[in-house]
User: What shape does this take?
Amino acid sequence: MTKDYNEFRAHWRVIVAAAIGVGAGVTGAMVYSLSILITPLTDTFGWTRAEVSGAKTFLTLGFVVTAPFVGYIADRFGVRKIAMVSLFGLAVAMFGMTQMNGNIIVFYASIFALSLAGSCTTPLVWTRGVATWFEEKRGLALGLTLTGTGVAGFMVPVFVGGLVDRYDWRAGYLVMGVAALLAIIPVYFLFFENGRVNKKTVAEAAKPETRTSSALQSGFTVPEALKTIRFWQLAFAFTLIGGMISSLMVHLVPLLTDSGMSRSLAVRIAGLMGVAVILGRVTTGFLVDRFHPPYVAAFFLAMPVIGCLLLSGGTPALGLVMAAAIFIGLAAGSEVDLVPYLTARYFGLKAYGKLYGAVFIFFYAGVGIVPPAFGYVFDLYGNYDLALDFAVAALGIGVLAVATLGRAPDFTVVDPSSAPVSEAAK
Assistant: This one.
């Protein structure tokens, strides 16, 4: 058996635990629940769609505020303990959401607190742990890890949506809180980070003729990365792409019900999008290990453009709506997979947590700002047509920025029998 598959045979448990953690975490079930909860919350409290979708802003504000700190402690102290503590805090915050009284300020404050509590359940933490065990098939490993959000995207409409329709919006937060608590169990038993370092190799790394280091020591420092055009190109691209795709996900169910579709059918189509997210995760991870990653990324990230065109202008046929959901889901599956992969591929693991945290800030700036803007467009015009047209243009610009990233630095394996060893990026 080749080294590629030896990696999976030895470390598949880490992927399983990480996938469960990311699915139950704040960027999994919580994100996919927003589309399900928009209508119940507006009906219950009389809030506008812009006000309810503003929750996305405060949710991502918590990510932005904590991302640099999370990256620092992940690099310095490891990820297992902070992930378990954060899952517990997230569960408590979910239970606290059920006590909202209709004050929109309380709603925003609760969402922000929930985001802070779950800040160590984001993909930054889970991919940091998985990336240390994989090198030859890192793209596929990260893709499998992040299928956890796709599973959440499928299960939230089925279970959370069903409970909300049967009882009320509080049931949704309760079941997501229980899921976060249960996720602690596999994380405790299966999720570990590879902290082994080959001392002989590290000693040789100091010699000018070798210039090698362990996987955790190879790559760019933060100042070095910030001086490259690629970092800013990557940050700009995923600001646009993250904002547009997130908005399509958040507003999909209300957009479909506005077109005359029943809520139950709209929720099931949202579940179909979750299945597409899983396919996007795995397919992207498989392909980036074999083909030029920017071209693979551009192919998948361009798919929501087709989805927007299918959804705009009138009442689309059911088949077209399903196709649009699949296209959006494939891109949503790819984007969260591609951010950590491209960060590791272009900048190495030396300061991975900090650099991913920095890209994460830009990515979630788009995620936090654009969904409320979509809601505002609906409140103003009574439809999403203008928002969809803007999404097509912004996605096109973002895809072009990704496609032109160019060739990644060469991180060459030196000693495959020990901890991964790479040539430092020049």
